């Protein structure tokens, strides 16, 4: 099977059958497998600092190190090559060289998974083991307050969102609360008294009095960006990284450090930590030190977070040892995992690239079972460059199909309540329980066409048509037999007999919901969920038909029903009759609170 794609692969390498389509290939030491034969196009993932970067095309470039690659052959078969990190702790990756591909490793064993199939399978997919708080709408202080964050600033920001009818349930106090030296080294485990005079307890209590349920704080896995300024009372060691020396907790001292830090956070009422700069531990040049540090740090975080019930958001960790750690814990309930690099508000192309990366990285990171964090964004820019005014809505459309958490980082007083309302109902972020899929897994960022991504639940599917190009694009939409679709912006509704198309300008988007048509008697029915929300299908708790009654339980918003054959005979919540308004074939019902509605036909 391997020789079908790599005819010049050496004979001495080991091949172990994993399942009908997959083998594990390994050898002691690095080895070459030659060039892949008869490849039409590919999508690969390479390191970009602490992040993964998708790149693709018909031609592969020399000198790249890849974590994984998918390929389509000229005869229509599909290949998945996934570097293996956990097998004998191999830390392998795939390197493109002028005379063929090479499997390289930082240890003694080089290995990878190889899958060949007639149909596209992609990377193996774990179920999403999502922590419940991910369903809550959140606010992060980073873009809005930056390193000037303090108690009063956080409270003002939350008050500002409440005044915009968008109160958050989760608040992340990002970088800026620490006592640090001028060279960005940590001087205390506890927050600055001039910024948080009552510690975190004071701001947590103030936020909870305003309806915030959970408060996170930011931290680097080594304390701060450049480590410790002194030992801070913990056993420490020096690690070599990128030509510099960092003072950090030693493999023995890190347990005491996280015990002290997380127990303090727990006492202060802090719910979790956004744990950043995970890549630092992968950049340690000495292999022995690196493995000891990685293992002890992750175990210390796991132990203390479980002991003190501190939740973790994992950031800047798209590196082999993190993938290894996650792969060994497939059934663990996991915090969100940052899924791409940053964007820059005034640089339009960076928004396009950021969202493309998130969508295509998710095709790879889905195998670890985390909810994928597409990152915070601003709903309104205070001084936008030309075209930037479209970007918050583009981010919002991408987040709607992400299946991950939704939190924003607006400046105080600079909010778009209409945009927030499209993503949130009653304080809950409307998200799907699955990972997004893509129409074309081999699509390049530079391709001059729409990126099409989907997500779904048991009630229907949401498709996002995203324009990351400089040109407008049109698209004809096909509706499957027995289904009905509705376009969010264009507002059209089409079933199998209808004709539909969309036009999407540069930097813009369209969302199309598709649901199955049911019947009661001779009347056709389709439930779109909340049609004033992007992921309105995610607002549905249940939809069921009993005899001549349609029963729907959902969150508050504007419920939309496809009723082309006329209104129901009766509609009610309990004993109260419902007011139904029609817009063409769509019946709208204003749902005031989370409740069950009944429609008789």
TrEMBL record:
GO terms for molecular function: alpha-galactosidase activity; galactinol-sucrose galactosyltransferase activity. The keyword Glycosyltransferase applies. It comes from the Eukaryota. It catalyses: alpha-D-galactosyl-(1->3)-1D-myo-inositol + sucrose = raffinose + myo-inositol; Hydrolysis of terminal, non-reducing alpha-D-galactose residues in alpha-D-galactosides, including galactose oligosaccharides, galactomannans and galactolipids. Keywords: Carbohydrate metabolism, Glycosyltransferase, Transferase. InterPro entries: Aldolase_TIM, GH, Glycosyl_hydrolases_36. Belongs to the glycosyl hydrolases 36 family. This is Putative galactinol--sucrose galactosyltransferase 6.
């Amino acid at each position: 099977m391997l020789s079908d794609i790599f005819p010049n692969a050496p004979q001495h390498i080991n091949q172990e059958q994993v399942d009908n389509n997959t083998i594990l290939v390994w050898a002691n030491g690095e080895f070459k497998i030659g060039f892949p034969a008869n490849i039409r196009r590919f999508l690969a993932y390479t390191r970009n600092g602490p992040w993964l970067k998708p790149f693709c095309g018909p031609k592969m470039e020399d000198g790249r190190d890849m974590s994984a690659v998918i390929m389509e052959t000229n005869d229509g078969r599909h290949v998945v090559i996934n570097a293996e990190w956990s097998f004998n702790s191999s830390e392998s990756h795939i390197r493109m060289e002028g005379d063929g591909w090479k499997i390289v490793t930082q240890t003694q064993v080089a290995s990878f998974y190889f899958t060949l199939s007639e149909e596209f399978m992609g990377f193996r997919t774990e179920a999403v083991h999502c922590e419940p708080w991910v369903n809550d709408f959140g606010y992060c202080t980073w873009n809005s307050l930056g390193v000037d964050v303090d108690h009063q600033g956080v409270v003002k920001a939350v008050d500002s969102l409440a005044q915009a009818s968008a109160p958050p349930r989760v608040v992340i106090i990002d970088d800026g609360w620490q006592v640090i030296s001028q060279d960005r080294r940590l001087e205390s485990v506890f927050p600055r008294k001039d910024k948080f005079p009552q510690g975190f307890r004071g701001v947590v209590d103030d936020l909870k009095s305003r309806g915030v349920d959970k408060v996170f704080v930011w931290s680097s896995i080594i304390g701060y960006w450049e480590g410790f300024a002194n030992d801070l009372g913990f056993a420490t060691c020096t690690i070599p990284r990128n030509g510099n020396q960092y003072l950090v907790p030693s493999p023995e001292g890190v347990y005491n450090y996280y015990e002290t830090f997380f127990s303090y956070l727990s006492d202060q009422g802090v719910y979790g930590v956004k744990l950043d700069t995970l890549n630092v531990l992968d950049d340690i040049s000495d292999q022995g030190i690196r493995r000891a540090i990685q293992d002890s740090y992750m175990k210390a975080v796991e132990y203390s977070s479980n002991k003190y019930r501190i939740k973790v958001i994992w950031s800047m960790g798209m590196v082999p040892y993190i993938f290894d750690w996650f792969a060994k814990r497939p059934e663990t309930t996991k915090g969100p995992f940052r899924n791409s690099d940053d964007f820059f508000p005034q640089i339009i192309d960076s928004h396009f690239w950021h969202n493309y990366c998130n969508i295509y990285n998710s095709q790879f990171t889905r195998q670890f079972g985390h909810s994928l964090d597409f990152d915070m964004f601003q709903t309104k820019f205070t001084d936008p460059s030309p075209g930037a005014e479209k970007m918050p809505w583009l981010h919002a459309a991408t987040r709607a199909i992400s299946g991950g958490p939704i939190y924003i980082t607006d400046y105080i007083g600079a909010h778009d309540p209409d945009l927030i309302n499209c993503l949130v109902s009653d304080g809950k972020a409307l998200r799907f329980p699955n990972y997004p899929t893509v129409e074309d897994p081999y699509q390049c960022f530079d391709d001059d066409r729409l990126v099409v991504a989907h997500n779904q639940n048991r009630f229907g599917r949401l498709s996002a048509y995203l324009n990351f190009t400089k040109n407008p694009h049109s698209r004809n939409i096909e509706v499957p037999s027995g289904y009905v679709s509705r376009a969010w912006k264009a507002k059209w509704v089409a079933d199998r007999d209808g004709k539909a198309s969309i036009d999407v300008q540069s930097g813009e988007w369209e969302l199309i919901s598709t649901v199955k048509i049911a019947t009661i008697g001779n009347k056709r029915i389709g439930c779109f969920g909340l049609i004033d929300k992007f992921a309105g299908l995610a607002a549905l708790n249940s939809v069921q038909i009993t005899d001549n009654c349609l029963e729907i339980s959902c969150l508050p918003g504007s419920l939309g029903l496809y009723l082309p054959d006329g209104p129901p005979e009766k509609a009610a919540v309990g004993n109260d009759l419902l007011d139904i308004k029609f817009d063409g074939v769509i019946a709208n019902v204003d749902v005031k609170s989370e409740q069950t509605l009944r429609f008789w036909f």
